Amino acid sequence: MDFPESDPERLTVLYVQQWLSEQGFLSALKALEKDSGIVYDETKLNEGAKLMQLVWRDMEAVLAADVDDAAAERLAEEERLLRGGCEDYVSEIATCLEGVHPSSVTCVRIWPGRDVLLTGSGGGHVRLMDFEADVKWECKVGTGGVLCLDLVEISNDIGRLAYLLAVGSMDGSVSILQPERGEILASNRAHSKYVVRVLWAKSDAEGGSNGHLVLVTASHDQSVGVFSWESTEASGTELRSSAEPTAQIGGEVHTLVEIKKVPYMTPVQDILLMPDGHTLVVAVKAAHCLRLLDIHKIKDLGDERLINMNEAGDNHISFTARHLALSPDGKYLLVSTDTARLLILRTCDWSVLRSLFATSEQFHNPVATWHRDSFYVYVATTTAEVWAFHVGSGKVVSKLAAHKINVRDMNYDASRNLLATCSFDKSVRIFRSTGH
């Protein structure tokens, strides 16, 4: 089937223009032509009433649906989402931090329960600063820009430190920092290209990881890596014989030991851990399927389940999943794509529940996160704004004028209802709800 327009957004405008023309709404048609920059050409559509055909088809599908138990449950879920939400989404700026780094701010994390931020820069530095931009420490990691951060609280039986910070860089390296003081505990040239995501997880003691922490990494070198975090008492023999990059801090040797690399035929775009702590969701470039891996089954990491993101269930590739975000209740996965479309998948059956539409451009870095009640999502747009969507209705309920240049990363603190964003404009913004 050939479409009169290959761009879905231009095709949407064409359908609306046809409907306005057919209804005699000529003033509205002229206004749409002016605002969209697209002049209506009625010869592009061989059939009339294309928009109404879609509307009636949708209505008939709803009315004719086989209301079995699964369909009834899904309908009830959609109704719950439509009616849900107490409108406490963030809507105003609480703090503006300018010149956070000399170069672009590439990632940001709010330290849970504290008025401090961890930030990474295009210059390869990580900083800890408070909400007044007072820098507590700065640390240079790797030889390239910082692309991702992950902070984890650790138990006393794993190590003496309360927190660990993982840092992924453009040069393919991964560094582990003591975030209270900014000390590098260990580093590893984990990949040969960009490390776009680092995630802490807990091992179940298979594969020689002894129940310790594991670090999962995603890279544009077409692989996912799984590394064990090892802390042992220092000895001269151990330091001399170790083949892994190590650091000795306070009488202990800290090491990142590679357990497994999972190869793909295309760059890995993002990874995400499910609430069970061991199911890993993997998004790769130019693929219509997400991958599910079990990181506890170290030897069988190549065995994966494929999740088709196409609603029709076909093999057509029309987008790439670029960013993944799990709802706080674990029921939904938000998939940001390299188009204006965002998908919301139900994790119970991995079906597409809803599509949201923001803005898109060729070099946009998609990033999004959920509100604490799972009824709203925050999405970075190409207009340097952050849009808050109501999931049930798909409507934009708030537009936050965040930055001068596109948002690079965001992080949400559910306990305090705070949203932090960072940008290529070297700044960080912290948003709160109006009622805060």
Automatic annotation (TrEMBL):
<keyword id="KW-0539">Nucleus</keyword>
<dbReference type="InterPro" id="IPR001680">
    <property type="entry name" value="WD40_rpt"/>
</dbReference>
<dbReference type="GO" id="GO:0000027">
    <property type="term" value="P:ribosomal large subunit assembly"/>
</dbReference>
<dbReference type="Pfam" id="PF00400">
    <property type="entry name" value="WD40"/>
</dbReference>
<feature type="repeat" description="WD">
    <location>
        <begin position="400"/>
        <end position="436"/>
    </location>
</feature>
<dbReference type="GO" id="GO:0005730">
    <property type="term" value="C:nucleolus"/>
</dbReference>
<keyword id="KW-0677">Repeat</keyword>
<dbReference type="InterPro" id="IPR011047">
    <property type="entry name" value="Quinoprotein_ADH-like_sf"/>
</dbReference>
<dbReference type="InterPro" id="IPR015943">
    <property type="entry name" value="WD40/YVTN_repeat-like_dom_sf"/>
</dbReference>
<protein>
    <submittedName>
        <fullName>Uncharacterized protein</fullName>
    </submittedName>
</protein>
<keyword id="KW-0853">WD repeat</keyword>
